[in-house]
Write a structure and sequence with these properties.
Elements (H helix, E strand, L loop, with lengths): L2 H31 L10 H19 L2 H6 L1 H15 L2 H12 L3 H15 L10 H8 L5 H6 L3 H11 L12
Length: 173
């Protein structure tokens, strides 16, 4: 096995371990925040793993001569323990909180709300998206916003936040 092969193997083990830890963190974050995971970026775990895997693999390789000497299985187990110990679910949870504070979840949820409004009669008649954006910005939390992301929920959103939705509809629609 060449040095390049060892580095590639370490990267792969690190990547897989980090994806697993990130998924665990995303599940816990979802439970803490009460937001359905479908509103997270589906590649969030991969993104976190891609950012960290090469550095973690190199750190481990530099400190793991004994495991490599013992064979592939010992190396793999050592790498997995290293990831669990230093880059486990709690570490990933903190990384996830940092990444998600930028409003990514809300943006995905708003896109779904706008899609519902554009495809639900009679609200599709209101084509001014700035109107819907202004009204949706009045929703104070993502948990409440999540409630409106269904056919029944979109009706409740309009009743509560946009009862005047049909006032300035462009003629001819």
């Amino acid at each position: 096995m060449t040095d390049f092969d060892i580095i590639e193997e370490a990267n792969e083990i690190a990547y897989n371990g980090l994806v697993f830890q990130a998924k665990q963190a995303m599940k816990e974050y979802s439970e803490i925040k009460g937001i359905d995971p479908k509103y997270y970026d589906v590649n969030m775990d991969v993104e976190l793993a891609n950012d960290l895997a090469p550095r973690i693999a190199m750190n481990y390789l530099l400190n793991s001569f004994l495991e490599r000497a013992k064979g592939k299985k010992a190396f793999e187990l050592g790498m997995k323990k290293y990831i669990e110990e230093f880059y486990g679910k709690d570490y990933m949870l903190e990384k996830l909180k940092h990444v998600l504070t930028g409003g990514r979840i809300r943006a995905v949820m708003l896109a779904e709300l706008f899609d519902l409004l554009q495809n639900t009669d009679p609200y599709r008649k209101q084509t001014d998206m700035s109107f819907w954006l202004k009204k949706s910005n009045e929703i104070p939390s993502n948990i409440e916003l999540q409630w409106y992301l269904s056919k029944r929920g979109v009706n409740e959103f309009v009743e509560r936040y946009a009862p005047d939705w049909n006032r300035n509809i462009t003629k001819g629609l």
